[in-house]
Amino acid sequence: MTVFRCTNCQKPMTGEVVSGEPVRGPERPPGHEVVPPRMPLGTFKTNFDGSLLILHPDDVPGTVLHTDPRRVSGCCGLAGQDGPNLVCGRCGAEVATKESDCWTDNLVALMTAAVTDGRATDAAV
Ligand SMILES: [Zn+2]
Ligand SMILES: [Zn+2]
Q1: Which of 27, 76, 102, 108 has its CA at a distance of 20 to 30 angstroms from the CA of residue 125?
Q2: Residue 113 CA to ligand 1 centre (angstroms)
Q3: Ligand 2 centroid from CA 66, angstroms
């Protein structure tokens, strides 16, 4: 189990998550429909270059939406194409990008550089 915390203030950004594999959903439905989440609830996957942690949209309770309206634009949800749109709920640091629009994936991408998994401070369990 891992809890990713804000590097800046140590507030937990995620719940307890484990390494998992993305699910390949059915073909994108036509029209304005949001696809099912890429990751199963409670799991994360590091992206190809290690810069992002892909999570289920409901696994980041420690974050809040960015206050810049340009960052949270979208059609049916959040497009996430204009920079990080989720910030730390305590200190406001930009920590993640959420995509949940009708033409994007449905996921949250935590920036590896903005979070810590606590391994440095927590003893092995
Ligand atoms: Zn739409
Ligand atoms: Zn913070």
Answers
A1: 108
A2: 31
A3: 13
